[in-house]
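Table S2 (continued). Query chain:
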Amino acid sequence: MNTKRARLKIVCILAISIMSFSDRLFAQNDTPVLDTQQTVIMIKRGPVMNDSAYKNYASGEFTPGRGFDLVRTKFGALNISIYAMARYLNQMPGTQTWEDHLGRPHDFTGRNDFYWHRSMIWFSGWVGTPKFTYAATVWTVFTTQQTLIYGNMQYRVNSHLRFGLGVGPNLSVRSMQGSFPFYSSTDRTMGEDALRGGFTHGFWITGEVVPKLYYNVMFGNNLSTLGIQASKLTRNIAKSASIWWLATTNEFGPRGGIGDFEYHEKLATRFGASYVNSREDRFNNIGTPSPDNTQIRMTDGVLFFETSALAENVTVDNATYNMFSIDAGFKYRGFNLQAEFYGRKLSKFAADGPLPISELNDFGYSLQVNKMIIPQKLMLYGVHSYFFDAFKRHPWEAGGGINLYPLKNRSWRLNGQVIYVYKTAAGGTFGLYTAGQTGPTITFGSDILL
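Corresponding output:
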């Protein structure tokens, strides 16, 4: 009898746990699934955010989702959250030939594939005091066959000062500063992807200067840590900084993301400026044609540190990377306008032969317009990027897409997009672009953030 009662008790506990999990996962309008440490006040027309809502407690793409609490004691807490994305990508035409800025032909083969593209699992919480937080991330991008485990630790002194140590973003563009994965589509625009810095190991400080005005300063090893071993690093330190002003509502939605899913009754605004400086190295033997440093790409799609990039049989071994960007965003009653302007300068080249130029100056912008057609269910958007580049090739893109939210929250999204690209400046299998393409690209994807 005691055994039967014990079994019945276990079944009841499991049933209650499953119902609790289902209620949280499939929450509708009255309980939106949002990020960790966020609060929402509901009114008739939609959610209105209070002043303490939507503060990111980790930087860039490393801010965990709301997740599920595994452990919570007086000593500390442990939470697990997940991001995952799968998509179909078709770059057309299937084959073509394009020319770089020196007139040399390159073959282009467009992708036509299905991929479980990206997974991220966050283990996060606090130790000793809620002021000292940690996040350990398991990250993989299947299209590049890369898998890493990394993280960061942060200590919050007060609202004006928080210290962080670990892996973080070079604060080069808006999409590197917390909005992931709430982009218009399942990845960045060409304008964002072509010139930006990457992620590296470093130290940062961030906080609120005065009400509604925020800052972040980052000191890192280099522009991007992917594929770079510690033994190859130089003694140069990358520096980046960003400042942003939440002028009206002191928030810009969950993670500061794209799209007014939350349906702001009062105009929400965000104005920001960012700057990065880094003395970059190609990080491998100058006699090797393909560089380890693949973060810097010229606007013709060629890797900057690749042998013969600027002159035949000449390899650049060092260069100084400077980039600035300014952004402005507006959200009101389901409408969102996001604009950003970029400028990048490559200078102070150290090469093994003569070069025809001493620096490269490239400028560009991206524009995104979003509208919730059916509140909390259907969003339409358009994107456009354009470059005023040193080679006068003027790469650009234009297109748009649709986002469906089956659960009436941001936790699960279905995305479809069609864009036309001209002489694509961005490249690689990490994002949506392959260097040099001129033609349409179609994507269908789905992502979740729990």
